[in-house]
Structure formats: structure tokens, C-alpha cells
Amino acid sequence: MSEDEALRRIQEKLMAEMSERRSREEEALRELQRIDAIVKSLLTADAWQRLKRVELVKPELANEVKLYLIQLYSAGKLARKITDEELKALLASLSERERRDFNIRVV
Questions:
Q1: Which of 13, 18, 24, 80 sits in a 20 to 30 Å window from 2, CA-based?
Q2: Does the pLDDT of residue 55 top 80, yes or no?
Q3: For the whole model, what pTM was predicted?
Q4: Which fold does the domain 3-94 belong to in CATH?
């Protein structure tokens, strides 16, 4: 096998890997957009804006809220859109649950 042929095979392999990675990233982006569309339909405009601001600062918390809302929706427990005040309460309860109490003891 010549060097040119070996380089060509390596290049083809790298191109295939890049293409596969790009398609996985595009699929993940489509999934995130689908989740956002569902959650946006479950929230009032003010609540949606608040959730997007929270997502900038605490993306893990925002994702947890999104998944929770989708679970409620899937279970048929949401009869109307979630208001900003209700979202605030949900965010507060989830934030409180995640807080850790650190005690420092001097031994």
C-alpha cells in the first residue's frame, strides 16, 4: 500500500467520523428544539421568558423543570398553561431541594 493510498483511507475515515458526529449533533439539536416547543406551549409568555433566563444561568435547573413539565403534560395533569407565578414556585421548590447544607465542624 502506498503512502498516498494510506493517507486517502485515513482522510476518508476522518470525514466519515466527522459526518457521523455532525448528524448526531443535528439530531440532538432537533430533540432540544422539540422539547422547547412542547414546553413553550405549556407556559404563558412571561413564564417562558423566565425559564429561558433561568436556562442562561442554571441550565441544569431549567432542564429539570422542562422534563418535569413534560411529565405532567404526558400524564394529563396540566389543564391550562403554567403562569409565571406558578413557574416561580416550581423553580423555588426545585432549587430548595437541590441546596445542600454544609456543616463545618472543628475537631
A1: 18
A2: yes
A3: 0.72
A4: Helicase, Ruva Protein; domain 3 (1.10.8)
